[in-house]
């Protein structure tokens, strides 16, 4: 059995780590390079950095950050935000990133998934999907969750897999920042209908929430931000608790 992964997520804006609730009301959470080093030392399996402003200036800032993070950590890390071409990915991977995450650009031009997978390998390509329930249906959203689309979460996820993505990072916008638990119903459906790993995102508030997303949601990895950034859950304590619940993790 593959070990389940714990992934701190660092949302980056203007070179700083920020965190909000339901994608808004952002507050500063610290220096991303310092946080990355701490998480690597504390036992995180991977890291995800999402440049949520992703302007031209932000891209330059992100490349500088990626170089610094690569010097400080010895665990895989993913970078996302504003990626729309092979050239963007090439720059990030050469700067030290192990994987990239694409979202809006994949929805606007799905062929990008094929192109990146063919060029760099599916193991490098994560497609992030932000979705919320509208009239009982999970609908995919663009641009950091700000623009609704007509895409169905499960249909889009299947297309993403078919086009060569190596993993899906699913964020429930309804759960994001609420600390009420992950969207385990949707996660379980994704995990049982797809053959690629599913990373759960949105809603982590307690250690039990992580237990639930692995046992009920059948997630392959769990991503969280504020509970780690503000010291509410220590990764060592979390992994020990998962072990006690017969969930395979790397200690």
Give the strand order of the largest sheet, numbering strands 1, 2, ... along the chain. 1-4-5-6-7-10-11-12
Number of helices: 10
Spans with pLDDT under 50 lasting ≥5 residues?
none
Total separate domains: 1
Q: What is the residue-mean pLDDT, rounded to a whole number?
A: 92
Just name the CATH architecture. Answer: Alpha-Beta Barrel
For the record, give the distance between the C-alpha atoms at the N and C termini, rounded to a whole number.
Answer: 15 Å
Tell me the Rg in angstroms. Answer: 16 Å
Written as H for each helix and E for each strand, in order along the chain, the element string is EEEHEHEHEHHEEEHEHEHEHH
Helical content, roughly? 25-40%
In total, the number of strands is: 12
Class in CATH?
A: Alpha Beta
Percentage of β-strand residues: 25-35%
SSE class: alpha/beta
CATH superfamily: Aldolase class I
Strands, helices and their partners?
Elements: E1 5-13, E2 16-21, E3 24-30, H1 32-42, E4 47-51, H2 56-72, E5 77-80, H3 86-95, E6 99-102, H4 104-108, H5 111-120, E7 125-134, E8 137-142, E9 147-152, H6 153-162, E10 167-172, H7 184-193, E11 198-201, H8 207-215, E12 221-224, H9 226-229, H10 235-244
Helix pairs in contact: 1-2
């Amino acid at each position: 059995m593959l070990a389940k992964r714990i992934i701190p997520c660092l949302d980056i804006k203007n070179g700083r780590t920020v965190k909000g609730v339901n994608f808004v009301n952002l507050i500063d959470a610290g220096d991303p390079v310092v946080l990355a080093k701490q998480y690597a030392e504390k036992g995180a399996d991977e890291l995800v950095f999402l440049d949520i402003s992703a302007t031209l200036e932000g891209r330059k800032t992100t490349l500088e950050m990626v170089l610094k993070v690569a010097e400080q950590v010895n665990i895989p890390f993913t970078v996302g935000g504003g990626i729309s071409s092979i050239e963007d990915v090439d720059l990030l991977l050469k700067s030290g990133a192990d994987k990239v995450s694409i979202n809006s650009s994949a929805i606007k031009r799905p062929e990008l998934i094929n192109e990146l997978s063919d060029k760099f390998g599916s193991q490098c390509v994560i497609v992030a999907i932000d979705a919320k329930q509208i009239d009982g249906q999970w609908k995919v959203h663009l641009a950091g969750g700000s623009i609704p689309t007509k895409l169905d979460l499960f249909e889009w996820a299947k297309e993403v897999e078919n086009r060569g993505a190596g993993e899906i990072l699913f964020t429930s916008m309804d759960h994001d920042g609420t600390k009420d638990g992950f969207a385990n119903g949707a996660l379980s459906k994704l995990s049982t209908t797809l053959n690629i790993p599913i990373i759960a995102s949105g809603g982590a508030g307690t250690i039990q929430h992580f237990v639930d997303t692995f046992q009920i949601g059948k997630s392959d990895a769990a991503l969280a931000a504020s509970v780690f950034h503000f010291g509410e859950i220590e990764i060592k304590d979390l992994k020990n608790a998962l072990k006690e619940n017969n969930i395979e993790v790397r200690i």
